[in-house]
Amino acid sequence: MRVAILISGGGSNMTALADSMTGDHPARPVLVLSNRPDAGGLARADARGIPTAAVDHRPYKGDRAAFEAALHDTLCAAQPDLICLAGFMRVLTEGFVARWQGRMINIHPSLLPKYRGLDTHARALEAGDTEAGCTVHEVTPALDDGPILGQARVPVRAGDTPDSLAARVLEAEHRLYPAVLRRLAEGDRKRLDLPQR
Ligand code: GAR
């Protein structure tokens, strides 16, 4: 299975995914693509010998269709079987999603359906939640709403700040995303629930 990974930032999830695809793993990373040319994850991918590309969204200034056409062309050139969004911070339109539906997954830093969108950790703390976590789901046109492929849970601790909770959830993301990818690559779409750690 050929896997393209879309990032916008440091790419720690991309690294966790890429580093898992070795040995007898049935998938390999074929492209790391960022909408930010300065994303730290591009250098981390390059250091691993993974082809990289950047499609900067800024010159498109609101012309989302043209941005997504460039994204699409760059992706098609790499012929991926699966696209993993890993901290990719652009909302994708229905048209783009439709072209890749069933072949595009995302990781989101909350226990969906709670807290779609941004600021998930601040919202979980504000609500007084005792548990937080992350979700891997299929990407569908509605934001953070597709069928859930897996979740991992972590405790919320007394004194947590959005940053301390984010760090704990991120560690869970690094366990969950490679585990879900492996199952998909082996043809298993059954939901995976990792217990609280
Ligand atoms: C991760 O926490 C990921 O779940 C989140 O961005 C972070 C990226 O970190 N994604 C979203 O919020 C998507 N809406 P990383 O670049 O180190 O993988």
TrEMBL record:
One biological process GO term for this chain? 'de novo' IMP biosynthetic process
Q: Which residues bind N(1)-(5-phospho-beta-D-ribosyl)glycinamide?
A: G11, S12, N13
Q: Catalytic residues per the record?
A: H108
Where (6R)-10-formyltetrahydrofolate is bound, by residue?
Answer: R64, N106
Q: Which GO terms describe its cellular component?
A: cytosol
Give site residues, Raises pKa of active site His: D144
- Keywords in alphabetical order, please: Purine biosynthesis, Transferase
The reaction(s) catalysed by this protein are: N(1)-(5-phospho-beta-D-ribosyl)glycinamide + (6R)-10-formyltetrahydrofolate = N(2)-formyl-N(1)-(5-phospho-beta-D-ribosyl)glycinamide + (6S)-5,6,7,8-tetrahydrofolate + H(+)
The residues covered by the Formyl transferase N-terminal domain are 1-181
Q: Does the keyword Translocase apply?
A: no
Top-level taxon of origin: Bacteria
Q: Which GO terms describe its molecular function?
A: phosphoribosylglycinamide formyltransferase activity
Pathway(s) served: Purine metabolism; IMP biosynthesis via de novo pathway; N(2)-formyl-N(1)-(5-phospho-D-ribosyl)glycinamide from N(1)-(5-phospho-D-ribosyl)glycinamide (10-formyl THF route): step 1/1
* Enzyme class label: transferase
Q: What is its EC number?
A: 2.1.2.2
What's this protein's family per the entry? Belongs to the GART family.
> Main role?
Catalyzes the transfer of a formyl group from 10-formyltetrahydrofolate to 5-phospho-ribosyl-glycinamide (GAR), producing 5-phospho-ribosyl-N-formylglycinamide (FGAR) and tetrahydrofolate.
Q: Under what name is this protein listed?
A: Phosphoribosylglycinamide formyltransferase
In which organism is this protein found? Answer: Roseivivax sediminis
